[in-house]
Structures are given as structure tokens and as C-alpha cells.
Specification:
- The protein has one domain: Rossmann fold, CATH 3.40.50.
- Strand 5, helix 3 and strand 6 form a beta-alpha-beta unit.
- The protein is an alpha/beta fold.
- It is globular and about 55 Å long.
- Helices cover about 40% and strands about 15% of the residues.
């Protein structure tokens, strides 16, 4: 009699757990989908949560990094029942490899995002798009072509002009370094000696720990380290350029400053006081969008979701709820 009762209790517990998993979602392997894009290639996505009204697709940076550094959002979004999607773009770690420069164009990536949106079943009534860094550039380009499909847009830590970004790096970020350190960095770059260990020895304390992630590098979260370790270096160098202190690749002359007013979708721009990107420029962007708003992470840098996480995540949540309501 006791054994039978125990079995019944275990069965009920199992059914309860299964019900909770199905209702709230858990980011299990069942939520992972490989989505086929043009050319027969496949890209990796993973759904977390279940909310028919708010579905947030995350566009990582790089180009060629991975979704992994977004995992800080696991500490915030599930608690408020926001459904969100991790996604490794074509050529990034969990997706099919890409080593063909003809695939490394903004237009192709825009069409990839649109394919992913369709195949995930995201609609104009529930589709929100968050792009960080290169992902922010991609999100702006996607919105310029497909804004009718987006309910809300978030541009995180990205300027609307690479020439303006390069100017900011040269005239603002550079002079903040000790003059001898900056001179040595410039000398290594002039020699194209990017593989020299000294290059990163200088950049880590004087650039990365100041403007990329304001945490001592030896204490960087595993998720951030993985995103950097798993980057598609060939794609990154081709599009961004080899320098970590400005852009010189295929994106060097990208600029949509004069087109921001075309994007009527409610848009949140996120900047940070210590960012690699100019926070004043990003605040200006928010005013160019007809339905724009601005969030400043005062303690944050380029990876503000990690070094100012409460402000960053709560700002995203507030924006999503405001647009949804």
C-alpha cells in the first residue's frame, strides 16, 4: 500500500514538472532549431520562454561572434515571462561555417534575419528585435527594409556611422590613454603586427577593461570569454578589420545617419558612459527616430549587459512592456 502510494506521488510530481516546463518553457534541447536559409545553409536558434505577445530575437555582435554573451539575460527575462531567442548568425559558432567573402554582405545578413523571423513564426504583432554592436548595425538595416514586420526595435551600443565611430576612437578614446601606450599601439598597427602578443598586452588593460567590459579580464564571465574564443576570426577581420581600435574592413564607410527618421517603429537606443561607441551620438540617434527613446548605462561599457546589468536588463524589460501595452 505504501509502495503504491509512493508511485502515485512520483507520477503526480512528474506530471506537475512536465506541465510547468511546457507552460513556462525552459530552454531545453527541444527548443533548439536549425533553420535553413538561402543556399541550403543552416543557422542555430534557441527559444527561451513562452509568451505569445512578446518574442524577442537577439542579434549578437562581431561580426562572427556568438549568442553566448547574451546569457546574462537569463537572470532577468524569464522572471517576467518574456520569450526570447538566441541565434548564431551564419558563419558563427553553432551555425554552419562561412568562409566565403561573397556571403559577408549586409544585404545577405538582412535577408537571413527575415528568413529566421518567418521560420520562427514571429509576426508584426509580437516581434521585437534587439541588436548589439554589429547586431545593432544589422538591426538598423533590417528595420530600414522590413520595419513593417517589427513591433519594437532595440539598438544596443552601436552608432549609426562607422566613420563617426572611427573619429570617436581616434579623437576621444585614444587620447584617454597614456601617450606612450597609444604610440606603441599605433606603431604595432602601422606594421600590421596584430599577432604580436604585446598588442593585446596593451589593449586589454588600456582599452578592453576600460571600454569593452569594465571587469578585470581574468574575471570576465565564461559566457563572454566563449563568445570571443568562438568568434569567426576570418569574417571578423574582413568586415570589421584587424584593429581593435577602430574599423577598417568592409564596413568602414557604412553610414545610415541620414535615414534614421525613416524608421517609425518604436525604438530604444542603449548607450553606456564608458562605451567604445560615443554615448552622445547614440543619444542623438534616439532623437532622430520618430518614436525613439534613450537608455544610458552610466556604469557600463560596450558590454553594458554585464557591467551595468540591472539598468540594461530592466531598461529592455520596461521598453518591451511599454510597447506591448
Amino acid at each position: 500500500m505504501i509502495e503504491k502510494s509512493h508511485g502515485g506521488d512520483m507520477k503526480n510530481l512528474f506530471l506537475l514538472v512536465l506541465t510547468l516546463v511546457l507552460f513556462f518553457g525552459c530552454g531545453s534541447n527541444d527548443d533548439i532549431r536549425m533553420i535553413e536559409i538561402d543556399g541550403g545553409h543552416k543557422v542555430w536558434t534557441k527559444r527561451i520562454g513562452n509568451n505569445p505577445d512578446i518574442k524577442l530575437l537577439l542579434l549578437h555582435g562581431g561580426p562572427g561572434a556568438t549568442h553566448e554573451y547574451f546569457k546574462i539575460l537569463d537572470q532577468y527575462l524569464p522572471q517576467v515571462n518574456i520569450e526570447y531567442y538566441y541565434y548564431d548568425q551564419f558563419g558563427s559558432f553553432n551555425s554552419d561555417p562561412s568562409n566565403n567573402p561573397t556571403d559577408w554582405t549586409i544585404d545577405r545578413f538582412v535577408e537571413e534575419v527575415e528568413t529566421v523571423r518567418k521560420k520562427l513564426g514571429l509576426t508584426p504583432s509580437n516581434f521585437y528585435l534587439l541588436g548589439h554592436s554589429w547586431g545593432g548595425l544589422l538591426a538598423m538595416e533590417y528595420a530600414l527594409k522590413y520595419q513593417q514586420n517589427i513591433k519594437g526595435l532595440i539598438i544596443s551600443n552601436m552608432m549609426a556611422s562607422i566613420p563617426d565611430y572611427n573619429n570617436f576612437a581616434s579623437t576621444v578614446l585614444g587620447p584617454q590613454m597614456p601617450a606612450d601606450i597609444l604610440a606603441e599601439i599605433r606603431e604595432l598597427e602601422a606594421k600590421q603586427d596584430f599577432g604580436n602578443p604585446r598588442y593585446m598586452e596593451l589593449l586589454i588593460p588600456y582599452h578592453y577593461e576600460e571600454h569593452v567590459l569594465r571587469i578585470p579580464a581574468d574575471k570576465w564571465p565564461e559566457e563572454v570569454n566563449n563568445a570571443f574564443a568562438n568568434i569567426n576570426q576570418e569574417m571578423y577581420v574582413a568586415m570589421q578589420g584587424p584593429s581593435e581600435f577602430g574599423a577598417s574592413g568592409l564596413l568602414e564607410f557604412w553610414d545610415v545617419k541620414d535615414r534614421l527618421s525613416e524608421i517609425k517603429t518604436p525604438t530604444l537606443v542603449i548607450g553606456a558612459s564608458h562605451d567604445t561607441m560615443d554615448p552622445d551620438h547614440m543619444e542623438w540617434m534616439s532623437k532622430e527616430f520618430p518614436n525613439g527613446s534613450y537608455l544610458l548605462c552610466e556604469k557600463g561599457s560596450h558590454m553594458a549587459m554585464w557591467d551595468d546589468p540591472d539598468v540594461y536588463a530592466n531598461g529592455v524589460i520596461d521598453f518591451l512592456n511599454k510597447v506591448d501595452n
